[in-house]
């Protein structure tokens, strides 16, 4: 009874998106605000809401799409202060499904404490031996994007040749590893020699190259795929998509997952080689992981099992503290992150 | 016995493709040659070849692809004098499957008489009440392209909204009619008011418009598809494809069948709105009818039945005489043909 009266009040540091932006995000487009207070208490009975302490926040390219006035986006724009996926610990709850002490993953705010009112997207984390932060990466939306995209969109067959762009990123690194486990030949493109090294030596890709060092992307792909590409898992769009189109095999498949290279352009560059869709009978398909959500339990089971057997690894780029959020987010678009970009808000 | 000695010799008028060309084809890229003689006799026993009198020749946009040095085309370049599909009558034969008097459809030359040595693509025409010339149109490659593309690539459902470009052409007119029979709402784009009239009043499209009169194609599509497009059967590429991409519904499908608008450009225009593939989860797929050739007998059965029941019609643009071939071919790229472009070489 006493606890109900003695409500703890904490300072709640927040990251504010300052509104719609144009061009490449800059650190000044985000602001860390301190001093705001929050009562560590769920709303009155019947609300179904709960209060969480945020532990890990996910930095994802798709968030850029919510920072501009893009009426056709599949996501509504951010209201200032809102944000994306995170891993949190329940502090107080009016919801019988989420009890204090539970770890959850789902939509939260870029702040130390968040009040979760819309609980449909919150998922209680079943304990396992994997790091909690993996629930915004390997075991979260990026991992599931890789899983659904590779198996459901790419229609892979053993022995096929697979190109993955942004290959060391949150999605790409799992796509490549799943493709290897499927018996494919896998080449990754990325933006630094350090990433090339990771892809070759830690993530088990057959080959990897730094696209920034290739004056002719088409020639680079021809070198790595002299017989052509069966599957291109496209995380970037732009020039790499154009170069892949001319290097696809007949009946190739392109999963269009992300277009980081075009996110910053209000006048996106045209894809010039679409004609190849006809001559090579290519299927090019956009997708969102949410369309395959019925496969999520199977995904978790498979990927946890692969991880526990040592068949896959996962690389995170961990940033310490909410103060690191602006540079971590901006770094995504400069290709600075190595692996899944995560912000640690608090230790478990 | 006497006939074997008295071999008839005829003048064999021919259309010569003068070699690789750039830009829009001109009438002078083709030449009608007279005076060459041919013996109306099949080669010696054992050759399996046969000699035909050509009745109808098909004029198709894909032929443009064989008139340039395009190493990635799905078809080898034309040798001068070679050409495409036609309907012919066998005059003399060393092949037991093709007897004098048989009507056949298949690859032939743009000339009055052709010696057919490669017979794999020759198909004996079973007699029916439809015009013989339909075997290069409704019942031939264009008709089958429409059939395979609509049913196998577009995954149509009753009640869906369908856009067809080059809608009065050899392929488009059947796509639209099949879509109507499937219970879809169908809009056709074309390049003249005469074609608009045909689409609305003869081919049964729900709506049709002349793209040349639309300063903003995106706005035009928004007008005809306020709720968006489920299926775009793309025969043209270019600006119409870009405009369709932004007007597609979620989970829409685009069958990429032809890109007449880009065939003449050595530097094809880029498609700027590919980003929509992700936000709308669109499947965009190129195809060739030849990949579905196992469905050809079913296609013939269905389409002949529809035609005989008066459920579909087919419009031909008939050009008289081999002399009309250069202007008929060039007219394809100027949008001058109304319906399937055919050259009548001789009367049956």
Describe the structure in your own words:
With 348 residues, chain A is α/β, with parallel strands linked by helices. Chain A folds into 2 domains: 2-137 and 315-344, Quinone Oxidoreductase, Chain A, domain 1 (Alpha-Beta Complex); 141-290, Rossmann fold (3-Layer(aba) Sandwich), CATH 3.40.50. Chain A has 10 helices and 17 strands. In chain A, helix 10 (325-334) links the parallel strand 16 and strand 17. Chains A and B meet through helix 8 and strand 15 of A and helix 8 and strand 15 of B.
Our count of helices of chain A gives 10
In CATH, what is the class of the largest domain in chain A? Alpha Beta
Q: Kindly name the structural category of chain A.
A: alpha/beta
What is the H-and-E element order of chain A? Answer: HEEEEEEEEEHEHEHEHEHEHHEHEHE
Quaternary structure state of the chains depicted:
homodimer
Cα end-to-end separation of chain A: 27 Å
Number of domains of chain A: 2
CATH architecture of the largest domain in chain A: Alpha-Beta Complex
Helix content of chain A: 10-25%
Low-confidence spans of chain A: none
Short description:
The structure is a homodimer of 348-residue chains. The first copy, chain A, has helices spanning 2-5, 141-153, 172-181, 193-201, 217-224, 238-247, 260-263, 276-279, 296-308, 325-334; strands at 9-11, 14-17, 30-33, 37-39, 50-58, 85-93, 103-107, 113-116, 123-124, 161-164, 185-190, 207-210, 229-234, 248-256, 283-286, 316-320, 340-344.
């Amino acid at each position: 009874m006493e606890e109900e009266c003695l409500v703890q009040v904490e300072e709640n540091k927040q990251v504010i998106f300052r509104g719609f932006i144009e061009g490449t995000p800059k650190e000044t487009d985000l602001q860390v605000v301190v001093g705001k207070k929050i009562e560590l208490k769920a709303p009155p009975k019947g609300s179904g809401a709960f209060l969480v302490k945020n532990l890990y926040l996910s930095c994802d390219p798709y968030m850029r799409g919510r920072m501009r006035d893009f009426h056709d986006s599949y996501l509504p724009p951010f209201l200032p202060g809102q944000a994306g996926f995170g891993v949190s610990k329940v502090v107080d709850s009016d919801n019988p499904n989420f009890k204090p002490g539970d770890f959850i993953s789902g939509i939260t705010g870029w702040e130390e404490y968040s009040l979760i009112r819309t609980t449909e997207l919150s998922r209680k984390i079943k304990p396992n031996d994997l790091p909690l932060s993996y629930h915004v990466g390997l075991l979260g939306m990026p991992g599931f994007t890789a899983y659904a995209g590779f198996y459901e969109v790419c229609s892979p067959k053993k022995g096929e040749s697979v190109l993955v762009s942004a290959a060391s990123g949150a999605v790409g690194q799992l796509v490549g590893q799943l493709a290897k486990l499927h018996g494919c030949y896998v080449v990754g493109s990325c933006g630094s020699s350090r990433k090339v090294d990771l892809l070759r030596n830690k993530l088990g890709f057959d080959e990897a190259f730094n696209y920034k060092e290739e004056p002719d992307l088409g020639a680079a792909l021809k070198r790595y795929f002299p017989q052509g590409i069966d599957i291109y898992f496209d995380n970037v769009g732009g020039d790499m998509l154009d170069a892949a189109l001319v290097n696809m095999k007949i009946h190739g498949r392109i999963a269009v997952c992300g277009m980081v290279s075009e996110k910053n352009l209000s006048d996106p560059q045209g894809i010039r080689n679409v004609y190849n869709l006809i001559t090579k009978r290519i299927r090019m398909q956009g997708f969102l992981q949410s369309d395959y959500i019925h496969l999520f339990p199977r995904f978790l089971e498979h990927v946890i099992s692969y991880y526990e057997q040592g068949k896959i690894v996962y690389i995170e780029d961990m940033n310490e503290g909410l103060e690191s959020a602006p540079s971590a987010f901006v770094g995504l678009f400069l290709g600075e992150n190595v692996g899944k970009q995560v912000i640690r808000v608090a230790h478990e």
